[in-house]
Protein: N-(5'-phosphoribosyl)anthranilate isomerase
Amino acid sequence: MIVKICGITQPQQAKEISQLGANYLGTIFYPKSPRYVDLDKIIEIKQSLNESTKLVVVVVNQDEKTVEELLYIADIIQFHGDEDYSFVKNFPKDRVIKVFRIKEESQIKQMEEYMKDDYCLLLDTYKEGMYGGTGETIDIQLLKKVLKLYDKIIVSGGLGLDNIKEVLSQIKPYGVDASSKLEIKPGIKDISKVKQFIEIVKSYESNN
Ligand SMILES: O=C(O)c1ccccc1N[C@@H]1O[C@H](COP(=O)(O)O)[C@@H](O)[C@H]1O
Structure:
């Protein structure tokens, strides 16, 4: 199972989290986020990662040229805004994660074209006025319905030490993603929480 730790702003923390065994490490390239990092910082973060950790850059409604530039640095681009399929399909499928912020079952219809083409999807909690990093727990019942149809799904939205075991006892996703619940303050992780989170997921995986 992929473990993605997101919202990293410091190269030193990126290095430590990579050494702890995170499969994906995310940075936020969205200026309105308190976790925003610029291109120079993203390059520094990339350089601090082990080869086994992929760098994911999170974008919100960026233009095509900017995404192309980011793909020179990032391994994967996470489209966390209102990007539609006709935009997303301009980029290599294996280097893209498309996010759906879920609130109702009718959204499954919009996911179908991505499912048909085997894209990696990330499901996050919907919150009015926020694109992500809400810290609010995702709707597990709705998640279960989506996972019955498709399994290349990274689960996100308010995951932390308080709920990861309970979530994994109910579903077995392709990956899990955590950010704000592992922080001391926005953009700064509590490394001991990150360590425990990764250990819980990896041990759950090897015992099930
Ligand atoms: O963290 C942000 O500020 C952010 C801003 C814009 C888009 C996405 C953002 N964060 C991502 O949201 C998910 C869920 O985060 P959380 O665990 O609920 O805090 C995760 O991928 C974050 O990196």
